[in-house]
Amino acid sequence: MNSPSTETTSGPPWDTPPASSAESAAGQGRASEPGRGQGFLPGRSGLVIPLVLAGISTYLVYGMVTMTVPENTDFPGPRFYPMLLAIVGYVLAALLVLDVLRHPEKRDAEDAASYTFHSDWKAVAWLVGGFLLFALGIEFLGWIIAGALLFWCVARGVGSKRPVFDLSLALVFSSLIYLGFAVGLGLNLPSGLLGGL
Amino acid sequence: MESLNLLAEGFQGALTPMNLLWVLVGCLLGTAVGVLPGLGSSMAVALLLPMTFALDPTAAFIMFAGVYFGGLFGDSTMGILMNTPGQGSAIASTFEGHKMALAGRAPQALATAAIGAFIGGMTASLLVVFLAPRLAELSAMFGPQEYFALALFAFVATSSVVADSAVKGLASLVIGLAIATVGIDAMSGVERFTLGAPQIFDGISLITVTVAILALGEVLHVASRLKRERNPRQVNVKGRPFLKRHELKEAAPAWARGTAIGLPFGVIPVGGSEVPTFMAYDLERRLDRRRKDPQFGKGAIRGLAAPEAAGNATTGTAMGALLALGLPVSSTAAIMLAAFQQYGLQPGPLLFERSTDLVWPLLASFFVAMVVLLILNLPFAPLWAKLLLIPKPYLYAGITVFCGLGVYATSGRIFDLILLLALALLGFAMRRYGVPLAPLMIGMVLGPLAESSLRDALLSSGGDWSILVSGPIPLVLYGVLLLILAITVRSKVVNRTRRDV
C-alpha cells in the first residue's frame, strides 16, 4: 500500500548471481543514487532491508555466543528464543535478496522527470544532520537553542526559502515549548548556555 | 444489566469537566493530524505517548481514544477532498468518496462519511460494553500455551494478511521481536544483547521505538519525496452539509452492512481496519452491479458509506479486544498497549477486576468521543481543510521538534536521542521499500509475552512441544489462523487475475 509504484514492476526473470556478491554490493547500493546508469545496482537498493535483517540476526548470534548463562539453567534458557529469531531472520533475509534480484525496481521512462518514488537525499541529509546536532548539543546548548536549530534545519531541508525569518520562528517555537513544558508542566529540559544568564 | 450499571458509573467518571476537556483535546488533535495529508492517527498517538507521564491514566487514555477515532474521521475528510488517504483504512472510502466530490457533491460525501463513522463506532462501542467483560472472563482461563497461541496468531495474521508481501511483513515482525529481546532476561536474569551498555539493561524503550518508527521515520519519508510529488488538487466544498431523505435512504443499508462487516474484525488480528473496509467496499460494488442503474464509478454514496462504517466499527471492537485480551490488532492499538504498560497496567482480565475506575470511564468516553467528533466533523469539515494552509516546512519542523521533545523528556538521555535517529532511519528505509510497520510495532509490544509464555509452557512440560497444541483454546486459535491464511491466499490469487478498481 505504501508504494504502489513498486508493485507493478514484475520484471523479466533475471539471472540470479550468488547471494554473497549481492550482500557485498548492497553496502554500496545505499550510497549510490538509485536509477542512475545501467549497471547492477540501479533498482536494487532494496537490498538494504535484507542486509539490515541479516545484520540483526548476526548480532543475535554474536550475543548468544558471548552470553554468560548460569550452569544449571533448564532447557528453554535465555538463548533459546533469540536463536529461533536468528534462524527465521536469516531465512527471510535470503528470501528478500532473491526477491530484489528477480524484481528490481524499474524507473518508468515517461516518468523520469517527476521522480515519483526516488528519494531526495538532500532533504534527508538536512533532517538527519539537524537531528544529530540537536541530540549532541542539547545538554550544552540547552533546549531553546538546540530545538531552534533542529527546527531551522528541518524547515530548510523540506524547502523553506527564508532562512532569517525561519530563525526567528524557530526561536519563538522552541521558547514556547520551553515555557509550556518546562516551566508549565515541569518537564526536565536543560537550560544550557542560557541558564547562566 | 451489570454492564449497564458499570457504564453509568463510567459516564459519571467521563463527564467531569476535566475529562470532557481531554476528550475534546484528543478529538481535535486526532482530526487535525488525520486531515494533514500523509499523516495518520498512529503518528498522533505516537507523538502523544511520551506525554503519558504528565497525565493520570484515565485522562491519558480518554485523550488517546479521542485521537484514535479523530484520526479516522480526519483521514476520510482528506481522502474525499484531495484523494490523499493518510492510512490504509481510508483508501477504500476514497475511491467513490473522491468521485462524489469531483461530481460537486463534496459536502454530502463528507456528511455520509461522518455519519457512517458515527454509526459504526457507536455500534461497536455498545458491543464492547457487553462483550468485553465476558471476553475478559474467558481470558482469565488462559495459561502460557493459550497466550502463546494468541501472540502467534497476532504475529502471523498481521504480518502475512495485511502486508502486500508476506516475506516483508514477517521481516518487519522479526525486527520488532529482536528489538524486544534486548535487555535483562526476565526469567533468568541474564544480560542479553546489551554489549554491556547500562542504558539498555531495562531494554530498548518502547517510547523511543514508537516515536522513531511511526513519527520521525514518517517525517523522513515525507521529506524525501516532498519536492517530487505532484501537488494534489483540493476540491472546493460548497453547499449543504446535510443529507436529504432519499440520500439517507440510499446510504442506510450500506451503513448497516459496513458496520456488520467491520465488527468482527476488531477481534481478529489482521492489522486494523484495512481488510474490512475493502471487504465492505467490494460487497457494495457487487450489489451495485446487480441494480438497474449502477452507480459505482460515478460517485456512489453506498461505496463511501459502507467502508466508513466498517472502518470505525473495527476500530471500536479493536479497543474491546485490547482491553479484554491485551491483544493489539493495529499499530495504533499497539501504542495504546504500550501506554498501558507505561502505567504498569496489563490489559486483560485483571484490568476489568482491578481497574474498574479506569476501564468504564474509558468505555464511556468512546461514546462521548463519537458525539464530539460528529459535531466537529459534520458542519465544520470544510474548516478543517484550512489546516492545509500551514506551510509544509514548518509543519514537519514542528513535528520533528516534538519527536525530540517527547523522547528526551521521558528518558533524559542523549543516548535515546541517537537511538531514535537510528531507528527512524530504519523506519524510513522500511517505508521506502514497502515493508509494513505494524508487524514491527506488534512484535515489539507482544514479543516479551510470546517469549515468556513459550518458555513457561516448555518448562512446565519438560521440553515437550506438544503442550503448545493441547487444550481446546489453542487448537481453535490455530484452526482459525489456518482458515484466515487460506482465505487470504485465495483472495490474493483472485485479485491478481481480476482487477477493476
UniProtKB/TrEMBL annotation, chain A:
Protein name: Tripartite tricarboxylate transporter TctB family protein
DUF1468 domain segment(s): 48-190
Keywords: Membrane, Transmembrane, Transmembrane helix
Signal sequence, renumbered to the chain: none
Start and end residues of each stretch annotated as Disordered: 1-39
InterPro entries (alphabetical): DUF1468
Keyword Plastid: no
Residue stretches spanning the membrane: 47-68, 80-98, 124-152, 164-187
Extent of Polar residues compositional bias: 1-11
Source organism (scientific name): Kocuria subflava
From TrEMBL, chain B:
Transmembrane segments: 20-39, 46-69, 109-135, 147-163, 169-188, 200-223, 318-340, 360-381, 393-410, 417-445, 465-489
Coiled-coil parts of chain: none
Keywords: Membrane, Transmembrane, Transmembrane helix
InterPro entries found in the cross-reference section: DUF112_TM
Organism encoding this protein: Kocuria subflava
Protein name: Tripartite tricarboxylate transporter permease
PANTHER family named among the record's database cross-references: TRICARBOXYLIC TRANSPORT PROTEIN (PTHR35342)
DUF112 domain span: 20-442
Keyword Transmembrane: yes
